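Usage

Read records sequentially. Each one opens with the input sequence:
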Amino acid sequence: MDDQSRAPLVAAESLKNHHFSLALLNDPPLNALVELLLGMAPGERLASERELTQTLNLSRNTLRDRMSKLESMGVLSRKERQGTFYTGVQPEQTGDVLILGLMFQQMTVESLISVRHALERQAAIEACVNADDAALAALEDSLSRMHGTQDGKELLEADGAFHRAMFAASGSPGLIFFSEMLQPVLQGTLQHLTLEQDFETMRKVHDDIFTAVRAGDVARASATVDDHFAWLDVLTERERDASKP
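and closes with the structure output:
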C-alpha cells in the first residue's frame, strides 16, 4: 500500500484514537457511516446498500436516512446506474453552507472582520516558526506584485495571494482549511481602494508583516497584523461616512 492510499486510513485511526468523530457527531448510525468513509479515498464507490446494512449493522431505512444527510452536505454523490460515491468535504462546500447561515442570521460581512483578524494573526504567528524558503518566496512574490502595479484590481489580487501564502506558510491544516472555507465571505472585508494613500498603506502593512515573519519575530508579526486590521477599520469607517446622506 502506497503512502497516498494509506492516508485516509491513518486519518481514520487518528480520529478514533482521539474519539473525535464519536464526540462531535453524537449519532451512532451516522458515526458508523462516517468512520467507514474515513477509510476511503475521495471518488471511491461505496458498497451496495445490502452490504452496508450488514457491515454497519443498520436497518435499510436508517442507512438511507444518514446517507441522504451526507449527500445533502456534499459528502456523498449518487449517480444513476453507477452507485454512491464518497466525494469528501471541501472547504468551498462548507463555505457555501456558512454563507447561507450568515444570511439567515442576517449577519453582515463587516461583523466577520474580527474572525478574519484572529485567523490572520495566528497564521502569522505560526508562519514565524514554520515558514520555509518556498513559503517566504511565495509571500515575497505577492509583495512584488503589489509594488509593481498601480491597478486597484491587480493590487487586490496580489493582496489575496499574500494572505493565501500566509496561511500556507503557517503549516497549520486547521488554519488553512478555515481560511479556504471563509474565503468567499472574507474577501468582502477588504474595501475597494481608490486613493493613492491607500495603495501605499496597503503595501506598507504587508511589507511589515512579511519582514516580521521572515525574521521569526512572533511579537512583531502579531503587532503588524493588528496594524493591518486597524487600517481596515479606517477604510470601513471612511466608507460609512461616504455613504451617509
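Summary fields computed downstream for this record:
- The chain has twelve helices and two strands.
- The CA atoms of residues 21 and 27 lie 10 Å apart.
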